[in-house]
Amino acid sequence: MRAERFAILGCGSIGTRHLGNLLALGARAVLVYDPHPAAREAASSRFGVPVAASLDAVWAWRPTVAFITAPTSEHLGLALAAAEHECHLFIEKPLAASLEGTERLLALVQERQLVTLVGCNLRFQPGLQAAKRLLDDGAIGRVVAARIEFGQYLPDWRPASDYRTSYSARAELGGGIILDAIHEIDYARWLLGEPEAVACFAGRLSQLEITSEDTAALLLRCGGAIVELHLDYVQRVYSRTCQLIGEEGMVRWDYSTGTLRWFSARTRSWATLTNPLGWTANDMYLAEVQHFLACLRGEQLPALDVAGGRRVLQIALTAKQAACEGRVITLGGPGD
Asked: Is 103 within 8 Å of 197 (Cβ atoms)?
């Protein structure tokens, strides 16, 4: 690993996960910051790394890489500040809570030739990677439709804390199931191509004490395929699945069971692929950080850079707009 200096900006669950994985991969110069003293001290105590009491102290330390792992509403401001200090950027999904200011960030990272990655850990899940290979190989022919689902009861996400105080529960902090489950929009685009149009129904339909939407149904047109996405904070049993319907077969992926099943019309038979023996959820986060480090070394291109992350955010926000306005919205190009 190059002698990078890593600043972790946000010590919640995802920030501490990335911190632990960075250290496991050999990072030595690491500094953590969180505006809440208890959070940063807990991370320091657990991992034995120094803390900064302020952002000024972070920049005085002269980091070369920043992990933006604060609540969604803080992503853009922290990313802009880090880019101004010439830090390469790992930004947790979503890129921001709105598009305002994202063009400035994009221009800044391009001008300063910074390496960027927006959190896209499902791209490193073995079943979805296998699905991508099958589609790229034409194994199920032309895809005409897809059904994608994610649901989990919000109070179960972080059982040790009150869900009502989380950013997920608060629209003003960038919460809501559409932005929280933006992974599903990202991998639909990754598997099936650029969305051309979006429609959406969404709202707070349950008794959860939140100000953000808890249920959403999106329709996308991706490369000619019709894609249905169901997202919710309500299901009492975690569910994350994808079904891809092609003219020559079908693929079904289930995160919970760790399986991908593929039906071939040519052989009239099913094949089943499973996660590697001993695989855990942290393995995809570890692979994601390994990928980012490889990008820093110039060995790989980012799976989802700031430009791609901005496009995924644009699609998610357009879905919110479509739900508010009750209409189908045609999407412009990625540069719009």
From this structure: no
Surface-to-core class of residue 54, CB atoms within 10 Å of its CB (0-12 exposed, 13-18 middle, 19+ buried)? exposed
Q: Are 143 and 192 within 8 A, CB to CB? A: yes
Domains of the chain: 5-114 (3.40.50.720), 125-275+305-330 (3.30.360.10)
Degrees to nearest 5, angle at CA 202 with 201 and 206: 130
Q: Give 116's Cβ-side CA count (13 Å radius).
A: 28
| Tens digits of residue pLDDT in 7-22 | 999 999 999 999 999 9
As a whole number, the mean pLDDT across the chain is: 96
Rounded Cα gap, residues 158 and 180, in angstroms: 14
Percent of the chain past pLDDT 70, that is, above it, reads: 99
First to last CA, the chain: 37
> Which helix or strand (DSSP H or E) is residue 147 part of?
strand 143-151
Q: How many other C-beta atoms can be found within 10 angstroms of the C-beta atom of residue 327?
A: 10
Position 319 scores a pLDDT of 98
Q: In which element (H, E) is residue 287 found?
A: helix 281-296
Residue 336 pLDDT grade (very low, low, confident, very high; cuts 50, 70, 90): low
- Would you put residue 62 in left (φ > 0), alpha (ψ -120 to 50) or beta? left
The single-letter code of the amino acid at 267 is T
